[in-house]
């Protein structure tokens, strides 16, 4: 028996009798425990980042409650069900994005929200974070792998429409994540290395074009700031200098819970949202930061394992894309806060304060758990 | 079919697995990058970031020292510090400066001038995050209004500080000087550390002369601040060291009396204590209110004072230079007899004019027709010019220059008077350097009556008078009597060498001659000396500003424009035995010394001696 066959056999073999309970309630225990650990640890850091605002922690806990509930509910559905409805949700999502363009609500200089009168305000782009990989995974895997060039072209268009709509809001972070989720699907589906290489070369060649015509001033500023934060230490460079200082001053063991001077004295901007890892790094040191990243590793490795063991191409591609996108979340956020990537608005998954992203992420993990627990019968 | 489908599935599996493996490697590499980056920041570069986070939160704030106080000789406070509330703005913390200032001016009264000055300073050289004052000396109401609206006024602060206050205002303006806001030129020169937190610096007078001692040493507090600069807690504190207190020889009552004595006449009165060299009074009239330099002049007022023909900013006591006129005669006479050019008994017949043998120019006596037979004592008492013309002709320039120099003319002899002028005690070299001409015999003749090239300040004449009263013993003329800073007292320089006479009795005989001026039967100022209950000595002087037509008693003919009238001088000391006060009085364009300055001197002596008798 070769490795592939071994891996394919693994789910059924390893689950055994003891774990059949988890399978029956459609919960992946490894993912569940790791997610819960990140959520609980994240709330401890959040408590400190908000200087002891229990209200904020409570609201975050409620979001996690909703998120985990949605995750468990979603996990009960068979992946086939997502395959069937993915296209519809995608279409609705695109229409909503268009609606945002026409009558969206503006806040903080961006038009991202859709106000349903009498109901909540929400971002249609959050739907697309899941709808895009589902839709792409279905479309690309219809006729087997690797996909035909025609299908690749169509799927590229399917990807570019929502990404373009979100970029113009503008919401660089979300569009980047969605683009990644789609590209991961195409990559995992077996796009030839030749094409990949030529795309990468093309992208590099296009960089100056992007720089000059597509990117906005503030985006260019962020890239420049990355290379020399001290050019404008009180302006554009402030965030990144302060977050690097916060992380760096934490040292190996950190300054202790609630004792980070950078975060407690408000030198660190956005300390409870995008820059929360800096609070962790300052107060719990290198050890704390590594602990969190190891938890993320558990989640990512488990996700990759689920993808490898998944029952069909759609499930493989979807699970792989969701997992890799989750990794991108972590990498972009930690990278920007620690000063190796330009500042893009990507929250630290499951730790940053904020409603929709938690629910969306956990819904994604619901999909993963569904894939993990609904094997071929 | 089934087989090929299975084959296909196998291929798909392999493809997907290889892609997942590639992804896994990428993920692993990127995660290593992240961990490496964190390791670099937190372990490798930890110290650098630690230091930066410390400088972020820790700020060292200066605590300005309390400026030293200035007292008169009896411990009366002449310059004090009083609390004042200043409204200032930290420009870096204000969002929209224009609208903030607008908002503030709705709450408290802010003049256009204050606003203009504020914006000047905002645009000019300043330290970042330095509060720029907008309005000083806020009223209680102003403070309350700002406090009530505090939350809407980001970047605005009200600071209590001690500012200088001069309770006697213009009467002491010239001698004490004043402090003013540190200007941009001074900022460049001064020691920034020593002035941390201090906004004022001594500009003139005592405040300037003793600036370093009065300033004190600033203290510091190390505080933890948040990102908006609000102090969270004080970590360490070092108290400032207050400036030295100065006790001056000045006599508050005498100074005020002297200032009011001049009334609305331009002029100066300087009084010294011969025994100590201490300056009892140093008045220049008109004065100005030095408190305005602290709180800020309005431009109109400042311009009016600056452009006033009375020139109130001129400290006439030390920077007004005038011909000494006849007040110089006792000094010249003393040297003349002591060095044997004449004797007390030697006399001349004064025809009312003098002529050099080499020259046909006529040097008139002020009194037409002359004084008749004149000896030294009479020449001093009646201020006979011809007697001194002849004496000067005998003495020649060098001997005259020497005696003037011994009495301190033409040089600075004061220890702690800020920025005085030195007058002119001319010499041959001086004239050649200044005018390119050699010295003429006629110049010597003019010098004998304190005219020509010779110039003196009231301070210099008062000092010379004091040395005369002290029988040639020099005491360093100074303002500082004592201080809690011993170094200041140690820094008082030694006085010039004493004036030694060959015959000490010449002092007494010259004092008697000077007593005749005020208390003799024919003294020029006998009217002012009448009825004095004590013996005193003096000498009048009338300094010509311009040659004008005069009658036989040297009185000007007709109505002379004020600025061309003679300057009135009087110098003297009292009492005659063991003198306690020596004075020089100058009234600019006042007219005759005997008639104008003489009575002022007498009043001053009456006040000083009688008041002392009461004590």
Brief summary of the model shown:
Chain A is mainly alpha-helical.
Q: Explain this structure to me?
A:
- The complex is a heterodimer of chains A (377) and B (615).
- Chain A is mostly helical and 377 residues long.
- Chain A has one domain.
- Chain A has helices spanning 3-15, 20-24, 29-49, 54-76, 79-103, 124-141, 149-167, 172-188, 193-214, 217-227, 238-250, 261-264, 276-309, 313-337, 355-373; strands spanning 105-107, 110-115, 121-122.
- In chain A, a hairpin with a 5-residue loop joins β2 (110-115) and β3 (121-122).
- Chain A starts with a helix and ends with a helix.
- With 615 residues, chain B is α+β, with helices and mostly antiparallel strands.
- Helix content of chain B is 40%, strand content 19%.
- Chain B has 23 helices and 20 strands.
- In chain B, the strands form 6 sheets. In chain B, strands 2, 3, 4, 5, 10 and 17 form a 6-stranded mixed sheet that branches. A 5-stranded antiparallel sheet of chain B has the order 12-11-20-19-18.
- In chain B, β14 (353-355) and β15 (362-364) form a beta hairpin.
- The longest helix of chain B is centred in the N-terminal third of the chain and has 43 residues, at 2-44.
Which tags fit this structure?
heterodimer; A: mainly alpha; three-stranded antiparallel β-sheet; 15 helices; 3% strand; B: 615 residues; Penicillin-binding protein 2a (Domain 2); six-stranded mixed β-sheet; 20 strands; 40% helix
Helix content of chain B: 40-55%
The number of distinct helices of chain A, counting runs of at least 4 residues, comes to 15
CATH superfamily of the largest domain in chain B: DD-peptidase/beta-lactamase superfamily
Model regions low in confidence, pLDDT < 50 over at least 5 residues of chain A: 13-17
Mean pLDDT of chain B comes to 90
**CATH architectural designation of the largest domain in chain B:** 3-Layer(aba) Sandwich
How far the N terminus sits from the C terminus of chain B, by CA atoms, comes to 136 Å
Q: Kindly state the mean pLDDT of chain A as a whole number?
A: 87
Q: Count the domains of chain A.
A: 1
Shape, per Cα inertia axes of chain B:
elongated
Give the domain tally of chain B. 2
| End-to-end separation of chain A | 22 Å
H/E order of the elements of chain A? HHHHHEEEHHHHHHHHHH
Number of strands of chain A: 3
Strand proportion of chain A = under 5%
**What's the total count of β strands of chain B?**
20
The low-confidence parts of chain B are none
